[in-house]
Structures are given as structure tokens and as C-alpha cells.
Amino acid sequence: MPNSSTDRSARIAAERGPAGRAIQGWRWAPAWILAYVALWPAPGYAEAILVLGALVAIAKLVSSRFRGGVSLLSGEAWALTSVLFFAYWVPQLVSTFDSIDPGRALREAAVDLRYLPFLWLAAAAVANERGRRVTFGGLATIIAVWTVDALIQAGTGTSPLFFGIDSIKQAISGHAMCSVSQVAVVDRLSGVFGPCNLKLGIVLASLSPFALYAAAKRAHALGWLLAAAAVGVVVMLAGSRASWITYLLVLVLSGWRLLGWKKLLGVFAAGAILLGVLGVVSSDVRQRLERTTHVFAVSEEGVDRALSGRTRIWGAALCMVREHPFNGVGARGFREAFPACDPQSDQQAEWGEGPAFHAHQIVLEILSETGFFGLVMWLAGAALAWRAWRFADAQARERARPAMLALVVTVFPLNTHLAFYSTFWGGLTLLLAALYAGSLLAVRSTPETTGTE
Questions:
Q1: What is the SS3 assignment for 447?
Q2: How many helices (H) and strands (E) would you count in the chain?
Q3: Is residue 384 very low, low, confident or very high in pLDDT (cuts 50, 70, 90)?
Q4: Mean of the pLDDT values across residues 144-153?
Q5: CB 61 within 8 A of CB 120
Q6: Of the candidates 443, 297, 416, 429, the residue with the CA atom closest to the CA atom of residue 361
Q7: Taking Cα atoms as reference points, which of 144, 159, 288 lies closest to residue 230?
Q8: What does the alpha-carbon distance between residue 81 and residue 437 come to, in Å, rounded to a whole number?
Q9: What is the pLDDT of residues 285-330, one digit of tens each?
Q10: Alpha helices by DSSP H, 307-416
Q11: Helix then strand then coil, % of the chain, to nearest 5
Q12: Using 50, 70 and 90 to split pLDDT, how confident is the model at 369?
């Protein structure tokens, strides 16, 4: 009969790092992460949470060092989180040297250093079993609440969550979240983000793995199907076609392991029927479907219209790559460089007046704004993330799977994207990278090590 004290010692030893110190995480870290995500519809408050979280993380990490060791993260998770950040940030720094406004670019690069300690905090949030349960479960709950809110808006015309946020904003400042003109031109379901910040669809698509995995864990295939249907309706009504592609990838990568290919094909058939029905009852969805059909046009103009002017933007991005091959035009310098590279400067753009703000495609954004140096750095980060996954055991892969899937679909290159060097989308992508690194390279928790105060 095995000795219970020996088993207990073995379990505790399994949780210790190379130097024999327990890796315990930090019990309050998940609260910071969930507060940051929940406040995305109010960008100023979300940014404040990020900055405060970064400062708290620095203080916590310093105090841990002084107590004689790192108890918040395993050495491997610490290293991978830092490497993924620097694969993102170093190209930004190098791109500033000959950018259009080097001073401003250097300031932006310096400010973005705030992400690093916050990413350590995010990795620490999922460093043990309790932290992963709270963090991933909390993200699933946020997605569920936003989905239900959007479905209510689809039925009634009003998002209860955004109505509450807007009412608070008016009571504090006397001004609404969105102007009358912004409300008038909205062409999709806006949900909690509101009609002047149309990010609901793409955010739900990228974060949906957390909701789908939580539903599958609770109710197996039925839970996955119900969650997939609810989120899918909102993504169709709220999202751009890019978010449709992102969500399709989520369904493929999460559904085949649970349902098998035959049943998953049935899900896709039902989804196609649902999309057709929404195309009939929703003028906004119908317009996006009609615009998509222009991709089959023979003329270049028809294709550009189908892609909402993307071919023109991509042509300008390639011009920037030719002109600045090593380090690009500077992170977030696309809009200033666009007029000189616009291949159709004498024609009205599909998106209206003004220059394009970014390349709308991850590879072209990296190449045009940070050059081939930036692309090599991003690829190096991706290779290290893949290497960590490849050499992880089955248990580690399973606990990191929701974060891995969310990160993969967010950076999937055969799609169009938001700007990865913007505050919002850059922060979301880096957060997913930290959750992936922290959960993949975490240690298995025991009752004795459920988190420090």
C-alpha cells in the first residue's frame, strides 16, 4: 500500500521549480485580467487597469525576488512570456530610428513597455489550477454576458449594457459615448461596445474559444453546440467578414476533436442555412454578402469593392516595403506614409475620405511598419511558441488549448485584421500570448499551493 506522506511529498515536489521553490501564482492576478477585459468597452478605464496592473506586478515581482525566489511563475513561463513580448516590441523600437516622426515613435515605444509587467501578471494569473479556473472561467462568463446582451439588442434594438455605460457617462460628463452622426451610420450589431466602437464581432470571435471550451466542459457536445450557435449568431450580425473567418476557424479547430468531422460538417451546413436566413431578415448582413459576391467580378475594381478597398491598401503597403525594406515606415506610421504610396490617389476610396490607417493584414502590417527585421522577429517568436507547444506534454497542451486557439485564430495570416500595433488590438494579442505561455508552462496545482496572497 503506498505511503500517503510519500505521495504528498511527491505532489509538492512536482510543483517546484528547478531550484526547488514552489511556484504558487498570485491569487489576485485573475481579478486584474478579468477587470481589464470587462472594461474594454470603456477604453480609458481599461487602460488605467492595465497601467495599475503593470505597477502592481512590478511591486509583486520585486518583493518576491527579495523574499528569496520567484514564486509567481515558472522560469519557463517567465522566459516565454518575455520573449513573445520582445518579439513584438523590439521591431517597434527599431522602426522608430528613421520613421516620419522619430521623437513621437520613440515615446510610443517607451510607453508600450508597460505591457511587459502586465503580461507577467497575466501569465501569473494562470500559473496554477485555481488561477486558470478563475481566469478562463471568467473570460467565458464575460463572453456569455456580452453575447446575451447582443442578442437582446438584436431583438429590441437596445443593448442593456451599453445603455447603462452610456447613462453613467452622461451623468458624469454630460456627454454621450457616441455622437448622433456615429449612431446614424452604424451598419451592424454593436452590443456593449456601442455604435462608435464596432469591435464586438471580432472580439467575440477571437475570445470565443474560452466560452466554447467552458460550455463543452460543463455539458459536452450539447453545451458546445448551444454556445457555438449563440456566439455565431452575434458574430454574423455584429462582425465583419474577417470575424466570420476567425469564428469559422474556431469552430473547425475546437469542434472536430469533440464532434468528429461528419457531425462538424452538419454544423457548418446549419451555419450556412442560418447565414442565408440572416441575409434575408437583416439588411446589414445582406449588404455584406452582396459585397462579397463582387470578388467574382472580372475587373480589379470589383475585387477591390468586394474587399472594401483592401487591394488598394495592400498595394500601398507593398510600396512601403519596397521603399523601407529593413525597418519599415515605423509602427503606426502607415497613415502618414499612405498618401505617397497610394496607387489610386486620384480616385475616391471605398472607405471614404482620408488615408488608410493600417495595412489590415498582419504580414503586410509587420512588413510595411517594421520591415523584414520585424517579420523575422515575429517569426522567431512564433517559432518559440510552437516549440514550447511541441515539447509540452499532453496535460500541458490541454490546459493551454483555449488560449492557444484564441491566439492562433487572432494572428491567422490568411485574413484581414485590426492594427496589431494599436493600443486595443495589440493589448488583446499580447494578453492572449501571455495566457498561452502561462498556462502551457504552468505547474500542476495541489491543495497546498493554491496561490499566494
A1: coil
A2: 19, 0
A3: very high
A4: 96
A5: yes
A6: 416
A7: 144
A8: 6
A9: 777 777 666 555 544 554 555 566 788 899 999 999 999 999 999 9
A10: 310-323, 334-341, 362-391, 394-411
A11: 70, 0, 25
A12: very high
C-alpha cell at 222: 450539447
Nearest Cα residue to 345 out of 374, 300, 390, 315: 315
What whole-number distance in Å separates Cα of residue 402 and Cα of residue 257? 13
Supply angle C-alpha 320, 321, 326, rounded to 5.
Answer: 120
- Strand partners of residue 452: 26
Pull the grid cell for residue 176: 454621450
Cβ neighbours, 10 Å, residue 66: 8
The per-residue DSSP string of 321-341 comes to: HHHSTTT-S-TT-HHHHHHHH
Q: Cell triple for residue 16? A: 517546484
Cβ–Cβ < 8 Å for 239, 247: yes
Q: Look up residue 117 and give its amino acid.
A: P
Grid coordinates in use for 46? 481599461
**DSSP secondary structure letters along 160-185:** HHHHHHHHHHHHHHSS-SS-HHHHHT
Domain regions of the chain by residue span: 32-65+74-440
Alpha-carbon distances, residue 189 vs 20, 66, 82, 359 (angstroms): 52, 50, 37, 24
CA 288 to chain centroid, in Å, comes to: 23
How far is residue 177's CA from residue 191's CA, in Å, rounded to a whole number? 13
User: Amino acid letter at 197?
Assistant: N
DSSP for 67-110, please give it.
TTS--SS-HHHHHHHHHHHHHHHHHHHHTTTTSSSHHHHHHHHH
Cell of 348: 475616391
DSSP code of residue 39: T
Q: Which three cell numbers stand for residue 339?
A: 498618401
- Single out the residue of 294, 303, 154 nearest to residue 230, CA to CA: 154
The answer to whether residues 223 and 216 touch, using CB atoms and an 8 Å cutoff, is yes
How far apart, in Å, are the Cα atoms of 103 and each of 92, 107, 109? Answer: 13, 6, 10
CA dihedral 10, 77, 46, 359 (to 10 degrees): -150
Of 418, 439, 381, 438, nearest in space to 89 by CA = 381
